[in-house]
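Complex record, two chains
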Amino acid sequence: MAPILEVRNLVKLYPRVTAVDGVSFEVAEGCCFGLLGPNGAGKTTTVEILEGILPASSGEVLYRGARLDHRFRNEAGILFQKTALQDFLTVRQTLNLFRGLYPQGYDIDELLRLCSLQKLADRDNRKLSGGQQQRLLLAVALVNDPSILFLDEPTTGFDPQARRNFWTLIESVKARRRTIVLTTHYMEEAQRLCDEIAIMDRGRIIARGPPRQLLAEHFAEVLIELPRDDFGESARHLPLRVIDGADRIEITTDDLDGTLKALMQAQVPLRNLRIRPPNLEDLFLELTGKELRP
Amino acid sequence: MRRLLAVWHARNLEFLRDRGSLVFTLLLPVALIVGMSFVFGGPERAVFKVGVVTDDLASVDHPFMLERFVDFVPVEDIAAAARKVGRHQLDLLLDVQAGRTRYWVNTDSPKGYIAERLLLQADPHAIREPVTGKAVRYVDWLFPGILGMNMMFSCLFGVGYVVLRYRKSGFLKRLNATPITAFEFLAAQVLSRLALILVVTTILYVGAGFVIGFHSAGNPALLLLVAALGALSLIALGLTIAARFSSDELVGGLLNTLTWPMMLLSGVWFSLEGSPDWVRFVAKLFPLTHMLDAARAVMIDGAGLRAISAQLIYLALTTLVFLGFGAWSFKWRAD
């Protein structure tokens, strides 16, 4: 099946910075595609070019095989990193305004229910909390029942509870086979929501694929975490790959049994030991040598 | 004090780096000084405007002509000039013939009254002639101007600043992600402000009409048409100013640069009789001038549609030009 979105050799130059440096990828219909990277990697610039908000310096973006045109505007839903709404309007009036701009879309009451906004329908949109505001902005992005939904760091600044609630919402959109393009610097978010990810650094894509496959490609190992105090002098002489953290140490190994035996022989207490598979955070560190979150 | 200085310094930097406003703040006073010197030019500013029936002012020999602070304007057609006296465009009209001086004055005009006193002091034998046509009360003459000025401010600032605010807050950027076009967005702003202005102006018109006992000589529906077309043109002008910029100071400055000359030159406060040709030419460019001309023609002379069609066409054309230019130069994003 032809991809819903094709990005070919995208470049965005600013006077002293190359923000996007030859980015190409495709997004299949119904897929949740994640664009990951640290702040300043070029995610937002890339996604704003995909949204048709910023012109590219070169390269092209095709939606269903055609350049971004009126059809794309009608069928795309967009949630910017920062969005202001018109003042003095209630939640319902705001949704009515945007609903009026599209030929097709949701019934407003259905949309309010979908985004858990029923109780806030008549509240002034300036009097919403951060999480409520973001749910309204998601509702605005969904108002035309979009075929493709762009979410630019949708949960930045959320508390964990609000973030989980928001993810549940996005999953209900995914369940309706809508295509989603998501940028984030939360690995947990990408791991939970995305079918495919691209990791960006300095304007380029440095790795791409389904999260599991990427992890399998780069890590044959597992990670063992121990409290630093438990990792005594005798253990220091063992031939292990150890990364020192502030209060924990991390051992990377592809021979879990052998490593655990060696630790026991060195009389390291295993009471507080944790074994975990590597996650996207580790992958990112491996690929860029950088922490994802500054 | 240190805190004050820190904020003072930061504000100065902000201002200096906002190039648009900087250039503007330097240019505006210069433009104002140059403009004022032309409009109010000459060694002394005349208080009264007196029409004198002659081709050559220098050849007229009359003691009144020696008065200071009076601007003498040569006129040819007595009937037309006498009508201007009735309309407060001239304070007095003077016709000096051998041995006989005649003058026309609007007895309802405060300036006309004083000019008449001055004339009679210089020449007690001057003969007063009745003003041809209807003499208009000063308040009736001023009333359309005040209404028009109120409309102008509401049109220019009302839409200009709103669009600027939308752009700065990022609301325009969000709208840009929807199928709406710049023209549709601007047209919606125009129509919203138009409805508001027509309601407010109608209330003012009816209310003030009761208070000062004013009646329009012409068709009120035609007057509404004049107000609508005038407001459209002024709103579109305001949108054109706000189409691109993101700086409050720049947009505010540009709007002020438009409103001041319009207020001074559109015949709201004083008439441009005897002003230099280029001043009248500039005045003729302003939509407000045409709206007031048409409104006064309807309200005072009872003019019909045909008599004011030129003004209406001008207002409609400028609306299209301003809107077209505004849509073409429109920017959704702040710089």
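Note: The first strand of chain A starts at residue 5 and ends at 13.
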